[in-house]
Automatic annotation (TrEMBL):
GO MF term list: NAD+ nucleosidase activity, cyclic ADP-ribose generating
Protein name per its UniProtKB record: ADP-ribosyl cyclase/cyclic ADP-ribose hydrolase
Gene from which the chain derives: N_231
Catalytic EC class: hydrolase
SMART domains: TIR (SM00255)
Alphabetized PROSITE patterns for the sequence: TIR
Substrates-to-products reaction catalysed: NAD(+) + H2O = ADP-D-ribose + nicotinamide + H(+)
Domain TIR: 21-172
Length: 172
């Protein structure tokens, strides 16, 4: 595994250092790609070290709006681990999560750690390959409101995709 510098920008507010978070880590991942493999192993490792970790265990309904409980868990987390995989961008839920994570990380100086799991980081940043295909599907018959949401998804992916993280595309 190649380790690179991790982007962290501490908050200038003194309240950040005293804030108590419900979760130390929030895991964002595409269930069908990594739930029963990499994500399970990472989750178990974090829990065994005593790290309070949020992992959504529910299979989310296709096309639905992101659950308020997920948004709240993001707001109540200190560190965000985003596991970008081949089909991550095909999920509206994942894309809504990455927008919220990007907003929380930018405004409160939290740690966002991307993991590029069997996907090239440039595909995330530039929305190429499987990410491009996912956006073509999202854009089909999109009304004005959905086009605005798609733009937010694209911006968040480009922003988070530019952060240094871990590139696991060569590992099984």
């Amino acid at each position: 595994m190649t380790s690179t510098n991790i982007s962290y920008s501490p908050s200038s507010s003194s309240s950040q250092s005293t804030r108590q978070f419900t979760y130390e880590v929030f895991l964002s991942f595409r269930g069908e790609d990594t739930r029963h493999g990499f994500t399970d192993h990472l989750y178990e490792a974090l829990i065994s070290c005593g790290i309070r970790t949020f992992r959504d265990d529910e299979e989310l309904a296709r096309g639905g709006v992101i659950a308020s409980e997920l948004l709240e868990a993001i707001e109540e987390s200190k560190i965000f681990v985003i596991i970008f995989s081949e089909n991550y961008a095909a999920s509206r839920w994942c894309l809504d999560e990455v927008v919220k994570i990007s907003e929380c990380g930018a405004t409160e100086g939290r740690l966002i750690l991307p993991i590029f799991y069997h996907v090239d980081p440039s595909h995330v940043r530039k929305q190429s390959e499987s990410y491009e295909k996912a956006f073509v599907d999202h854009e089909k018959e999109a009304d004005e409101e959905k086009r605005e949401k798609i733009q937010k998804w694209r911006s968040a992916l480009a922003k988070v995709g530019n952060l240094s993280g871990y590139d696991l595309q060569k590992y099984q």
